[in-house]
Each structure stands twice: as structure tokens, then as C-alpha cells.
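Project standup — Tuesday

K.O.: blocked on the structure for the chain from last sprint. Re-posting the sequence here as requested.
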Amino acid sequence: MIDRIEITVRAGKGGDGAISFRREKFVPFGGPDGGDGGDGGNIVIKADLSINSLRKFKQKRFYRAGNGRNGGGQKKHGKSGEDVILTVPVGTLVSPKISMPDDALIVDLAQPGQQVIVAKGGKGGLGNTHFSSSTHQAPRIAQRGEAGEESSLILELRLIADVGIIGYPNVGKSTLLAAASAAKPKIASYPFTTREPVLGVVEIGQQSFVLAEIPGLIADAHLGRGLGHDFLRHILRTKMLIHLIDGSADSPINDMIQVNAELSLFDSALAQKPQLVAVNKIDLPQVQARLSEIREAYSKTEISVFFISAVTGQGVSKLMTETIRMLNQLTIETEAGKEIPRKLFRPQPRVSHASVHMEGDTFVIEAPGLEWIVTGTGTTSPEVRLLLKRQLTRLGLKKTLEKAGIKPGDKVRCGTLEWEW
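H.V.: unblocked you, prediction finished:
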């Protein structure tokens, strides 16, 4: 199972605004008619029930949305770029590759049809019609389209299951899943028979729940030994756990303590999940001979233990009945607001304020609305320079520059534009 993948996404660039003037026979006072550029396409990630793996992202890791078209004359608006929608399985977590504080998360796609924009397309530039005024009726200025957002993301699939079966390899997890549901996992007498999580649906009366077998837990699984490091993340999605213990082990209670320690070391939230403990293989003679010893060991810990045989089905029905009772109780507690909310990473809106700073002997202006300006004649034209100064005045940057000590002849730069004051 491919359940964790890294991809890079790039939204589309916005189209440039047009510098155009209306020139038609017998039409006086034509004026500017440059249209706006189209917006760049977005990158969208959407949860889809028909998808069950992240395998398709293994071959292709880079995704790019369409660019917006440039504006045209006669106030023609450029066409917006096409969005790219990436479908992922329900239960996929989307997070930034760069580590963020507080367990940053962009979105948890836990519901079918849920979607999120992970890279927003750049805005289209304004045409020169937006820069005309009563005193300047033929502006030769327009805006460039903004660049689209780009980021590296990590897609991580966590199975949607109500209950997870955990325990050391070869304790009978697959057998219990097969006995309690219609699932048909691979069953054999050697460790690591199951190499990926398996789901099954358990029906008790009129109620049902999804049961998942989580394979590969051994000592130091949280450090990557065995298969546990690959699949421990799936347990985080479950509401509760069934901790299956091998009754024929040298010390069943020590096995339980060790597995719980691995869960806690991987993620402290796992230690808070409710558990039912079940001792398996009571059909074996050697386990029958020491049942009283095992019961006494667990009675000292005040842990309620179920004794079952997954092979014969003894005690399995009672275990599943108690499981669904606990699930119902957990649902009531969740609705009462006792569930701890996850911390989500909320991308901040783009900065819209303007500022001025010095780079050497040049005054550098950072103004999102101004640095995308393009001109048809460069900045040498007196009318263009006059219009730029008007835009600076409108944004309050003229006073800021004067307070910073700008003098005639000093260099000013905004985006790719540079001129003398």
C-alpha cells in the first residue's frame, strides 16, 4: 500500500492586462479599451470514494494548472486558466512539506466530496481602462498577471476505521478479523503475514462498525523497525483499539505493556485511545493450563480482559458486543464536545499593504497592486512617470518616500520597474 507521497503543485499565472486604445472610424473620443487578463487556474485536492490508494501519484509528482490568457482590445477579458483537480482517497491528510509548528495541517479530507485549494492561481492584471481619469485620459499603463502559488505537499492516507486491532505479529489479528467480519485477510503461521492494513465490517444486530487490522508492531516500531512505522499512522484515525495478546507468549502482560509503549512513543495521542484487551488462543492446551495464572496477572492491573479463540470463535461475539457498546458511548461523548480538536494550519492571506525600504542607494517599493504594472513605453515617457507618481500618491507611498529622504534624481524600483525620482 502506498499511503504517503510527496508532490509539488504550481497554480497558473494570471494573464497580463492589455494596453489598447479604441480606434474606429467616425467614433470620436475613443480612449483606452485594454481588457483585463484572466485569472490563473487553481490546484484543488478532492476526496473521492472511488479512489482507494495514492498509487497514481507515484509516477507523476508535479502538477501545474493552466495560465490565464492576456486581455485584449475592445475591453476583451482574457480566459481564466483551467483548474487541476487531484482526486485522493477519503481519509487523506494534506500537509506542507516544510515542517510547521503545532503539527501543521492544511486539511483532513475525511468526508466524500470534501475539497481544498492548495495552490491559488494568480490574479489577472488590469487593463489600461482602469488607469484613466479625468485629467489623464490616455494611460499607457496596465498590470502584469500575478504568479500562481507553488508548494510542496505531503499526502498521507489514514484509513477510515472505527476500531483497530493491534498486537505483536502472529498473535491472530487476521484470524480475529476474519472471524468477526466478512474480510478475507491472508492467514499463515509466520510473522508479518499481513503487509498492509485490512478492513472488514462487523455487524451486531442492527448496528455495524469498520474493523481494521494494523500489522507490523514489534519492539522499536516507532523507530522504523518491522512494518509498524509504516502503518502506525492508521491507528490515529480509529476511535478505539482492540489489543490482541498471544496467550501462549512467555509474558502476555509484558507484551501488552511493550506494544502500548510503542504506541505512546509514536504519538502521545494514541496512549489516550480507549482499549479492549483480549487474550487469544485459549483453545490451545498450553494456554488452557495457565489461564488462571494469566487471569491473576491481569487482575492485579485492574484491566478487564476478554479471553477468546479467534480460530474457534469462542468469546469473539462477546468481544464485538462490548466493542460496539464502547463505540456508542464514545459517540455520545464526542457529540458532547469531549473530543480534542485537531490543530489546523490556516494559510495567511496575501499581504496587501505597501512599504518602502532601501537597498544600497535605491528606494525599493513593495506594493502588490503596483509592482505588477507594465507600460507600453517604459518609464521614460513623462506621462507614464506622472501616472506612476499619482499611483504612489494614491497608495500613500509618496509621503513615505519623502519621509525617507528621497530627492530628485534618486533611484526608485518597484517590481521590475526602475526610474529616477
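K.O.: great, moving the ticket to review. Residues 163-335 form a domain with the Rossmann fold fold (CATH 3.40.50.300). The longest strand covers residues 150-157.
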